[in-house]
Amino acid sequence: MGLFGKPARLDDEDVIVQEQYDDLPTLPEPPRSTVIAAGAVVTGTLQGDGIMQVEGTVEGEIVLNGAVIVAPTGLVKGPVTADVIRLAGRIEGTVTANERLLLQKTGSLEGDMSTPSLEVEAGGRLNGHSTMPPSTQPGKSEN
Fold it and tell me: Where are the beta strands (DSSP E) in the chain?
């Protein structure tokens, strides 16, 4: 109720303003990303969707629907499963890249890996067994 018993106009203005924005399209949800900063140590299982960049140390399992990027300063002690893995640091554990694994020149993998697509830059190190199953991406035929 406004002054002198008159209805407050603010409520009417709020409705008008809100109606103006109801017709606007919604923005797409930004991709979710997580950074494990250099110097940080995270222990345990990390699961989720999006992009994870490891600049520090992860002691445990990473399971991600998305991409895992291990920076040159990054270290993962445990298994890693993701759609795409870019390794410039070090992983000590089993790696499963559902789509692609890129082992960069500063990268080192101490463990077995499985991926349908592997790219190793000169200088990248893989010490373990590799398995390359056929691609299971939609639209790709398996022969």
Answer: 33-36, 41-43, 46-54, 57-59, 62-70, 75-77, 80-87, 90-92, 95-103, 108-110, 113-114, 118-120, 125-127, 130-131
pLDDT tens for residues 28-58? 666 678 999 999 999 999 999 999 999 999 9
Lookup result for tokens 């190190």: 125
φ, ψ at 106 (rounded to 5°) = -95, 0
Q: Please tell me the total number of residues recorded for the chain in this structure.
A: 143
Cα separation, 73 vs 91, whole angstroms? 11
Q: Say what the pLDDT of residue 32 is.
A: 79
Spacing of C-alpha 60 from chain mean position: 16
Mind spelling out the 3-state secondary structure of 54-74? ECCEEECCEEEEEEEEECCCC
